[in-house]
Amino acid sequence: MSLIFFINGNKVEEHSPDPEWNLLWYLRTKRILYFYIRAPIILIDVVRASQCGFCTPGFVMSAYALLRSQPTPPSLAQLEEALVGNLCRCTGYRPILEGLRSLTSDAQAPCARSDCCRKQNGPSADTEDSKPCSDRQMVEELFDATSCAPYDPSQEIIFPPELLEAIAAKTWLPPFSITCGDVDTAHASADHTLTGEIHLGGQEHFYLEPNAHLAVPEESPICASLKGVEVRMKHQLYKALVRVSGVPQMEQVEVRDVGVRIGAAVTLTQMERKLVEIISSMPAYKTGVLAAILEMLKWFAGKQIRNVASLGGNIMTSSPISDLNPLLLASRSVLHLDSLTGGARDRVMDATFFTGYRTCDVSSTEVLVAVTIPFTTQEEYFRGYKQSRRRDDDIAIVNAALLVRMRGDHVATANIAFGGVAATTLQATRTMEAMEGRRWDEQLLQEVTSSLLQEVQIAPSAPGGMTAYRAALVPSFFFKFYLHVRHELSKTMPSVAPVAPHHQELLGSNKRPPHRATHLYEQVPSDQPSQDPVGRPMVHASALQQVTGEATYVDDLPPYVNELFGAFVLSTEARADIVSVDASAAFAVAGVHAFVSAKDVPGERNVCGEIVKDEEVFASKSVKFIGQPIGLPSVVTQSPRCFLLGSMTQCPEATQARVARALGMPANKVVVVTKRLGGGFGGKESRPVVASVPAAVAASVTKHPVRVVLERAEDMLLTGARHPFLGRWRASFTSSGVLVAVETDLFSNAGCSVDLSRGVMERALLTSDNAYCCPNMRVTGYVCLTNLPSNTAFRGFGSPQAMLVREDIMAAVAAYLGLPEELVRERNLYKDGDRTHFRQLIENSTLARCWRDVQLQAQYARRREEAQQFNRTHVHKKRGLAVVPTKFGIAFTVLPLNQAGALVMVYKDGSVLLTHGGTEMGQGLHTKMIQVASRALHIPAAKIHIADTATDKVPNASPTAASASSDLNGEAVLRACTELWNRLAPYRQKNPDAGWDSWVMAAYLDRVQLSATGFYATPGLSGFNFDTQEGTPFSYFSFGAAVSEVEIDCLTGDHTVLRTDIVMDVGKSLNPAVDIGQIEGAFVQGQGLFTLEELRFSPRGALLTTGPGAYKLPGVQDIPCEMNVTLLREVGNPKAVYSSKAIGEPPLFLASSIFFAIKDAVAAAREDERFQHYGDEEAAIVTAGEPLQTKTVGSSARLFRLDSPASAERIRMACNDRITSLIPAPVPGTFTPWDVTV
């Protein structure tokens, strides 16, 4: 049996393929390196969007697939939908969306601000901010879109004719019919078997034996979701898999009298397209269920999943959090089943259909053929609802489907189903019965609310956690449905009062406005030479390789001859003694070559640690956390080839030192090479050694090359995360809000070892003032040991946690005094001449300018009033605004790390090879170093190439961290290049017109050294001594400010970031495109920190959030709808290379503006008496313009605790109302929670 396929028009034939191979693994192991992406959309604007590049090919191919799938240019909304499911940690998505915008029908001029000066008749005021963009010394274009070649469909690669001929000749046949009926993913669950007869092309017959599993569709060798999870994650093996795509009975969509019959193998994408056609051709009243399904599909995973998942698969997996099953259950959809032994039967989906967790009322010999989704009548009303952690591509926390059939203004029948509240999709049968015959009025609402809370009870220890929140969502969804039905009834029935204006906000679906953005930066002087790239938006040096898929990462390195693959044996206990280690079961597995453990790393060689030696390479006598490495079985790989050992780390020197220690050899015999990282952000500063050191030990013991690749779940178990913090504070202040004294205690969860936790806490202490002056301040840090994975560095290094505590103080002071938060913050801002709490002088401060400019740019005063007016006329949706500053000290707080080295080599042909101690992880460090060298050597950037970072080129390099890498390595590169330029001075003077190449050759002929090293140690630093409370820890400070506006749904906790404006001081930017990309990426990463990302553990210490299914990052539809970034103009910095400033970490904290905008919106809900009364119309009715009745300013309405992240759960539960008051708090000690947030 052979598999034939084509990549970029190149034919590949593989004999005896393994069905479990995936394409990525195949290309890596078979070394088909020339198969890079050849998508015509690789334009210069897309190239500029790439940072680390690890996710870039996924975005490119998603956009390419969209472009090829339709004859006309897609809309921007379609582009956003196509990108859903692709995650990015670097860019913040904005540059990707902007880069691909030119391919859409919404392509527009770069400036997208709703209040753009170009859209005004004239300046609104005589201020610098109101001047047209063209009148400023500012530039908004980061690239010239006109330089991009237009998309030309005629240049596309055609579908290979050889495959078309093979399909026509039916040389490879799927089943075309099945005697017992039709087959689908329906029986993809592990406890079902199937026996039946398959007809291939009407001629060949095969019989399905028990345990044969059915798969759809063409794109997937196994069931898209369930089977993929079970095979890959649960290591489930199946005797047989049958692909059923091509069976006509299972792929048909038919409109019938009672409804739409959809084949069980129809993919969700196909169903989506058909439903659009059907709904557009029918009266709206008939398509209530179909419209609800279509709406739900917008939030059902990503398009890639919908392309392969089927309707039948969703039903038969019987997931209690399925998005579709509640809709099918509430609508009483009909399943058409067939069996070779029992014949055909129809089964209505009702309260008895789901019999238990992931089980249903279908026998093991039956298959699902099709599903009939009924039409609704004019008397029926139907809606579906879903709430998840993230807006897009996320599983439901709770979902619901509700149907009522009315008789006049009374309920004839009701059907209500919920997901995410029990082990099965649940019908609220008691509530449904109680509703029959009742009038659709306020009393019904109140009684149904109470009934649902009684009937749908979620035990405090229920799987999934968030039990009070899930309980609150149940009646919250019903309230929305109540308003919808009431609104529809009031159109034709005078007896039904119209929905109050302020409740009509809940009638429509959530529609996110199209994304838009602007970016402004100062243009270079007119007399700057054109070949001088400093200050220009030069494209990322590796972007083209990253966009085309040619860029290689650690697992792309080809296998070595006789390579072994190492897989960790990890602890399953959080705190336990090791009685013995028995590897006999591992050696019983074919291919296992060795088992490496603590016995192979004797004595002190097994002891390790970044600062304190409190860790082990392999656990020897006891374990400290679930996931701690105990051993490393090494297995012979299947495809031996050549192999280059490397480590993707931010600190090659640390890896070199740890490996040398473990192997008992000097560091000069260990070379660590780092080409590029797929993102870094601190997490790869110290923790990569948990994989690299065991791999090196295994290679030393076995005398074979060893590859260790961590699965995502293993990675999150082993490498730790950002430190959780707890802050406790006391503050005194004047009546005008000026701080007098602040005392703060900070507690960090270090995990099971010190690692970098002390350094993280030290920076937290030093930055706990954020941007505010206080004459009397005491801050104390406590690093707490726990039996959890060791937490580590992450972008900000403790600063965001500590700064959030200070901002909480500022917000509380304002609330207590009844003053605007922005006023209290402004009155306490640092100014030149002030000293910090560690006595460092504030100088060259641009904080006041950033603060003023961002409010002008954001039109803060006007929009604050507009938000208040919105809140007066809306009850269940509220808006909030916040403006937040940032001050971030630049330098390593560990003094010796503030040094860097570089090596610059000039070859006889004039080309330049540059290497330095920093690592490239998408932040554009290599690109900036090329720009520095280009200016210093007065040559085009094209002449300069940067070699991989390696410990045999630059020794003792500091980590690429602390936002200081451009400063440190840039000065080192500058010094090396300056030395070379000075050596060429005699030849420049002798022949000034000869040019670079001639000067280089002349120097070579005169035996002048054409290589130079550069070294730089940051001057003026003394570090900070916490014992004597003396020292200068920072070289300078970076400043910025941001305004964010949000809208929250008080009934669900969902929120939308409507707009963010940022002004950032980056000095004289080395590269505006890179710097703006860093600002946007850091901001969205901070958005995840403050609104979404949570680590959850079981009570026994097992990490539950071990992958993207449970740990949620911001997605493409979570970022601000409008995002405007301005680099502060006419500023410099005498303390860094070419007057630039550090940019990696400082902008991250500005995302707290979203957190405090959310808190502002929640406070508006808590102040609104109408919201507290929930559905009480008499208390809630208010006419437009009528004064809003609020609680006393300065009362508990605004003084409340909101922990970070401000997740949907926390937002909803902070919006106190009648629903939350009816949910009893469980008594501590009477239950064991399912999860614990630390």
UniProtKB/TrEMBL annotation:
User: Which top-rank group of organisms is this from?
Assistant: Eukaryota
Record-linked PROSITE patterns = FAD_PCMH (PS51387)
Name of the protein described by the UniProt record = Xanthine dehydrogenase/oxidase-like
Q: Could you read off the lineage of the organism from its UniProt record?
A: Eukaryota, Metazoa, Ecdysozoa, Arthropoda, Crustacea
Q: Check the record and name the SMART domains matching this protein.
A: Ald_Xan_dh_C, CO_deh_flav_C
Recorded hits in Gene3D superfamilies, A to Z, give: 3.30.465.10, [2Fe-2S]-binding domain (1.10.150.120), Aldehyde oxidase/xanthine dehydrogenase, a/b hammerhead (3.90.1170.50), Aldehyde oxidase/xanthine dehydrogenase, molybdopterin binding domain (3.30.365.10), CO dehydrogenase flavoprotein, C-terminal domain (3.30.390.50)
Q: Which cofactor does it need?
A: FAD; Mo-molybdopterin; [2Fe-2S] cluster
Q: Which family does it belong to?
A: Belongs to the xanthine dehydrogenase family.
| Residues binding substrate, per UniProt | 685, 763, 797, 893
Entry cofactor note text?
Answer: Binds 1 Mo-molybdopterin (Mo-MPT) cofactor per subunit. Binds 2 [2Fe-2S] clusters.
Q: Locate the FAD-binding PCMH-type domain: which residues? A: 225-378
Instruction: List the Gene Ontology MF annotations in alphabetical order.
Output: 2 iron, 2 sulfur cluster binding; FAD binding; iron ion binding; oxidoreductase activity
